[in-house]
Amino acid sequence: MGAKVFIDGEVGTTGLQIRDRLLGRKDIELISLPNDLRKDAGARADAFARADVAILCLPDDAAIAAAAMCADLPTKIIDASTAHRVNPDWVFGFAELAAGQRAAIAGAKRVSNPGCYSTCAIALLRPLTDAGLVARDAYLSIFGISGYTGGGKAMIAEFESGAANGVFLYATGQQHKHMPEVMQYGHVSRAPIFVPAVGHYAQGMIVQIPLHGVDARAVHAALTAHYTGSAFISVRALDAVQARENPQAFNNTNQLELAVLGNGDRVVVSAILDNLGKGASGAAVQNLNLMLGLDEGAWL
Ligand SMILES: NC(=O)C1=CN([C@@H]2O[C@H](COP(=O)(O)OP(=O)(O)OC[C@H]3O[C@@H](n4cnc5c(N)ncnc54)[C@H](OP(=O)(O)O)[C@@H]3O)[C@@H](O)[C@H]2O)C=CC1
Ligand SMILES: CC(=O)N[C@@H](CCC(=O)OP(=O)(O)O)C(=O)O
């Protein structure tokens, strides 16, 4: 008998992807609700009580309500939403963040999965702020482009029905929901300017952060030192210049590739992942593996 896992929000974009990643596993027994009961409070409460681990793939308000439903249960929770990412009662589910994070996830009852853009930005910034190469109070700008699956079922329907087209920029009011976690875990004290965009393709993301007045070699060395030995985060060789940066390069994987680009002391640090992979479902399965006492890369 495997560990019992309940995915709340199983038919949503992230939920479906996690389900697909777990379906073939003999060490996991999925608890599923019939379609007419998937939002039924009693059926969900029963599923939470039966599960060893519940994975919340819900909008923020529903994730907060679901966590409250589990408050008195021994069930472990992984929340894919934004609701608990900077909550001190939850462990941030980014295993590669710093020494000790993997062990903290493995021992946690409540784990909050990072956001997709924030996984990229934190992966780039944290080693650089900790090494003193980027000042914690630096004026930072972050650019990102995501495939439209990043906006969940509603945005997928917009693009696939033809109602939305081409590329658009958004969150121009500088209130994007990922900035609090980028600041907290990237160790930056000044809110970065964030310019996100959505492209007319399904999945894949690139995030870039320009850095003036830093040494590309030192930046590359700090990133390489931090991620050496990491199964899922790699740093491209400094001289491996590509004419085109492709946000879809790591689709359907749990990989995140970092690169140091630019010319002289005008450096751009860059990250590519699958927003549905290392940006959501892959990271959730990595955390699930750790919480079940398995190798973090099992089945990934
Ligand atoms: N898409 C992405 O790239 C990423 C998403 N996330 C996060 O994951 C979470 C889910 O996002 P995503 O999968 O994209 O969203 P979707 O809109 O695709 O899926 C959300 C699912 O939750 C269901 N749902 C809503 N309210 C309830 C409720 N009260 N009880 C049970 N089910 C409910 C919805 O039902 P119905 O089908 O009826 O609408 C839907 O199936 C969000 O918090 C999002 O921020 C995190 C990282 C990346
Ligand atoms: C393209 C798009 O709209 N992306 C979403 C972020 C992805 C997501 O759903 O948010 P979490 O990763 O925090 O859960 C946004 O910018 O709000």
TrEMBL record:
It catalyses: N-acetyl-L-glutamate 5-semialdehyde + phosphate + NADP(+) = N-acetyl-L-glutamyl 5-phosphate + NADPH + H(+). It holds the Pfam family Semialdhyde_dhC_1. GO terms for biological process: L-arginine biosynthetic process. Pathway: Amino-acid biosynthesis; L-arginine biosynthesis; N(2)-acetyl-L-ornithine from L-glutamate: step 3/4. SMART domains: Semialdhyde_dh. It is an enzyme of class 1 (oxidoreductase). Keywords: Amino-acid biosynthesis, Arginine biosynthesis, Cytoplasm, NADP, Oxidoreductase. GO terms for molecular function: N-acetyl-gamma-glutamyl-phosphate reductase activity; NAD binding. The active site is at residue 116. It is found in: Cytoplasm. InterPro entries: AGPR, AGPR_AS, AGPR_dimerisation_dom, AGPR_type-2, NAD(P)-bd_dom_sf, Semialdehyde_DH_NAD-bd. PANTHER family: N-ACETYL-GAMMA-GLUTAMYL-PHOSPHATE REDUCTASE, CHLOROPLASTIC-RELATED, N-ACETYL-GAMMA-GLUTAMYL-PHOSPHATE REDUCTASE, CHLOROPLASTIC-RELATED-RELATED. HAMAP family: ArgC_type2. Catalyzes the NADPH-dependent reduction of N-acetyl-5-glutamyl phosphate to yield N-acetyl-L-glutamate 5-semialdehyde. This is N-acetyl-gamma-glutamyl-phosphate reductase. It comes from Pseudorhodobacter antarcticus.
